[in-house]
Amino acid sequence: MKVLVSSCLMGIPCRWHGKPVPYSSFLKKHRETNPDDIFIGVCPEMLGGLPCPRPPVKRRKGKVFETCAKKTNRKNVTGAEVTQFFIDGAGKTLEIAREHKIKKAFLCNWSPSCDKSGITGKLLILNGIEVVNIW
User: Fold this and answer.
1) Contact 64, 119 (CB under 8 A)
2) CA 31 to CA 38: how far, in whole Å?
3) What are the pLDDT digits (tens) for 12-45?
4) Among candidates 40, 35, 34, 33, which has minimal Cα distance to 9?
């Protein structure tokens, strides 16, 4: 089975800060019990045209805005609206999922794109793809 996976969960440095995070322990366990599964990595933000690194973002009332990199100020919207990049990336992610006949996706929890309540997560769910949020 092919499974769509947030690239950052596979250790690819595509998060806003441009630094890699460790390969997900959930993915390691899944691979052990499902060795024939093929992971198809995606980063909706980068597919939508955002660079890496890039400013962190916040979702507010269905839109996505750049915010401050300083953690204590991240709750505040401090930059441009970048919603269209997220919409474009979600559309391209869905195209990839359809191309590979994906039925399940392991996506990054808390991401403004990949979370089940995020732009990509919602679009995949609306199109019949099971989204499992992991960290």
Assistant:
1) yes
2) 9
3) 999 999 999 999 999 999 999 999 999 999 999 9
4) 40
Strands (E), the chain: 2-6, 38-42, 57-60, 63-67, 77-81, 104-108, 130-134
Whether this model's pTM surpasses 0.85: yes
Distance CA 34, CA 5 (A): 14
Instruction: Judge residue 124's burial from the number of C-beta atoms within 10 Å of its C-beta, 0-12 exposed, 13-18 middle, 19 or more buried.
Output: buried
Domain assignments of the chain as residue spans, ordered by start: 2-52+85-134
- The total number of residues written for the chain in this structure: 135
pLDDT of residue 24: 96
Rounded to the nearest 10 degrees, the angle between the axes of helix 83-99 and helix 119-126 is 40
**Cα–Cα distance, 31 to 43 (Å, whole number):** 20
